[in-house]
Design goal:
Chain lengths: ~300, ~350
């Protein structure tokens, strides 16, 4: 976010905030492992199905409810579909929804919160009362409303889902950022920047946003799982996207019974979901530390 | 008054050139309550303050916490807009009337050094960005190389290592070093006036002297005038040419440093002076320590604001019916107290007016 306006390597060792952050991130083993795991999951979900020509839809009545084997690594489901293909293709939706909705949340929430907090007074009052108003509406109601607005779009199109989920989640981000900006605005380094004649834009971009970055990163990594889970709930209600981890988990739960347990139907999507969420949290933690010059080694 | 000095940089203050002239400055902060933010009162942080600062001069501004001295500095720098009343003329131009480009031009000539060296530096910026930001904002450097050279000059001037320190972040420095970075930032634009807002109060005593010496050296080299805010008279004595003592938003006494320390007239000045600890263990203890707390500036006492804590208070000090006289008891030595009339040759030059408080609803 902060550009590297400080790299002119004539002095000791000119390092920009970005390069510095990367160096610190590389030293953080846990965060690095999280990052690598995330990259692996994303590549698997988006590249493997295309590369191997996997088909998550074709049913085969002769191959129903098979446990994991060499032929079907993840087994097959109750309609005889290859479960590996279904989990990977379902991951595409979940990851896309999670990351895209979070990106929207970060952009909208941070800008909104920063403006409200920085200008304060009336502006703040109006902007934040609007947030309160949206908070007051039960979020399911809001989501269903949005989905209905898009009802003529093709079923399974993820755009309305991004929109609906983003609409719910940006409120908390805006509140968090506003609170931070409110205190930062009074800090003396911001006053100093004003005394030197820096404009509002410069103060927000150079002085305030870099200092809320840490908390934004953390909250964003918490938003991704929240969105993925919310999406699976929507899927469960029949409002979501066709195929996602959330939906697979829901289906998997429904077939687990003490007599004839098809455990793999629940196991695989849950494991991948959990793995993704863990990786994100570790990576987010590491990013926050890496972006803070005070954690220097 | 020797007005024979040449242009900047000068040795000592040039009393013929007034840099900043403040008249009847008032800054009241509204207290809002309720759903519609009704104004229910004011914090009268600064309530009628006047003084002049000459070129290359240091004016000490002293008072207890909450007396409004920081507000004076920040209001002059347009950090507390809008001002309630009064004018502050910087080279004859009222700073409160400036807007846009004119205000930015003023920013080049007036700077500030803050008390807390920890909160005054952006933890996410390198020393180079912090010190060089003003240069970039005002387009005073053509490129990064030039900026780096200028920043290195500034760091060297402030006693920092121009090679090793420039790429570092604030958290890697000690309090004293951080304050030097803050000073480098303030002098980057070669201002004529710097508001020093308790610049050494947060530092170790051993470091305080170093920073004060640095400020004095910079003043001699660059002819900068300082408004030096502090909460005790001990620090101010060393650096100030003149000292103003503030109490509850008003100036109680103002004089050149030697006069003020030798012949304080206002009981509050006397109390502050007697509060300076003596290194001599056998010295008698302060016979008249100041008692009580500073009253609230929301509802300051009637009459002389110091009267509830004053040993000499008479009935005429305690009501708003008699204004508090201002006496000139010597050249440039003014005191806002009835005791001024006892001084030989005292001349009544004005008075503090009461009753202009529109909020006397209580």
């Amino acid at each position: 976010m902060t550009s590297s306006a400080t790299v002119v390597p004539t002095a000791e060792k000119g390092t920009s905030l970005g390069a510095d952050a990367w160096r610190r991130l590389k030293r953080n083993r846990v965060a690095l492992a999280g990052g690598i795991a995330l990259v692996l999951i994303v590549t698997a979900c988006f590249v493997l199905p295309v590369l191997l020509g996997m088909d998550p839809e074709t049913t085969d009545p002769t191959r129903k409810n098979l446990p994991p084997s060499l032929q079907h690594f993840f087994g097959t489901d109750t309609l005889g579909r290859d479960y590996l293909a279904r989990v990977l293709v379902g991951g595409q939706t979940s990851l896309l929804v999670g990351l895209a909705a979070t990106a929207a949340v970060v952009i909208v929430g941070v800008l909104y919160g920063a403006v409200a907090g920085y200008y304060g007074g009336r502006v703040d009052e109006i902007l934040m009362r609007f947030v309160d108003f949206l908070y007051g509406i039960p979020y399911m109601f809001l989501v269903i409303l949005v989905m209905l607005m898009f009802s003529d779009t093709e079923r399974g199109n993820p755009i309305p889902v991004f929109f609906a989920l983003g609409l719910v989640q940006w409120l908390a981000m805006a509140r968090i950022v506003r609170g931070q900006v409110l205190t930062l605005r009074e800090r003396e380094f911001v006053l100093a920047a004003r005394v030197t004649g820096a404009g509002d834009m410069r103060i927000i971009v150079r002085h305030i946003l870099p200092n809320v970055l840490g908390i934004v990163v953390i909250y964003a990594t918490l938003t991704v799982p929240a969105v993925i889970i919310l999406e699976s709930f929507l899927s469960f209600l029949g409002l979501g996207v066709k195929l996602s981890w959330g939906q697979l988990v829901a289906e998997g739960v429904s077939v687990v019974n003490p007599i004839d347990s098809y455990w793999w139907l629940l196991f695989w999507p849950s494991v991948l979901l959990a793995l993704t969420l863990f990786s994100l949290n570790f990576l987010g933690d590491g990013l926050r530390d890496a972006l803070d010059p005070r954690t220097r080694r | 008054m020797s007005a024979t000095e040449t242009a900047r940089p000068t040795k000592g203050p040039d009393t013929s050139r007034v840099v900043l002239s403040v008249r009847d400055l008032k800054k009241w902060f509204p207290i809002r309550k309720g759903l519609f933010s009704r104004v229910v009162g004011h914090v009268k942080a600064v309530d009628g303050v006047s003084f002049d600062i000459h070129a290359g001069e240091t004016l000490g501004l002293v008072g207890e916490s909450g007396c409004g001295k920081t507000t004076v500095g920040r209001t002059i720098l347009r950090l507390n807009d809008p001002v309630t009343a009064g004018i502050a003329e910087f080279h004859g131009q009222d700073v409160f009337e400036l807007q846009g480009g004119d205000l930015r031009a003023l920013r080049r000539r007036m700077q500030i050094i803050f008390q807390d060296p920890y909160s005054s530096l952006n933890p996410r910026m390198t020393v180079e960005s912090i010190v060089g930001e003003a240069l970039t904002v005002h387009g005073m450097v053509a490129n990064k190389k030039e900026r780096r050279e200028r920043v290195q000059d500034l760091l060297e001037k402030c006693g920092l290592d121009p090679i090793r320190h420039i790429t570092r972040y604030p958290h890697e420095f000690s309090g004293g070093q951080r304050q030097r970075i803050g000073i480098a930032r303030a002098i980057a634009l070669e201002p004529e006036l710097i508001v020093c807002d308790e610049p050494v109060s947060a530092l170790d005593v051993s470091i305080q002297a170093q920073v004060i010496n640095l400020l004095q050296r910079l003043q001699e080299e660059m002819g900068i005038a300082y408004l030096f805010i502090a909460h005790g008279l001990a620090v101010v004595e060393h650096i100030s040419h003149r000292v103003a003592v503030m109490y509850l938003g008003r100036i109680a006494e103002i004089a050149d440093t030697e006069t003020l320390y030798a012949n304080p007239v206002h009981p509050y000045t006397q109390a502050l002076l007697s509060a300076i600890p003596s290194p001599d263990p056998d010295a008698p203890l302060n016979p008249h320590p100041l008692e009580g707390e500073v009253p609230t500036p929301i509802n300051p006492p009637a009459g002389c604001r110091f009267h509830p804590r004053c040993r000499f208070a008479e009935d005429r000090c305690k009501s708003n019916t008699t204004p508090i006289p201002i006496y000139e008891v010597g050249p440039g030595h003014r005191v806002a107290c009835i005791l001024g009339e006892n001084v030989d040759g005292a001349k009544r030059v004005g008075e503090l007016v009461h009753g202009d408080d529109e909020t006397s609803a209580s």
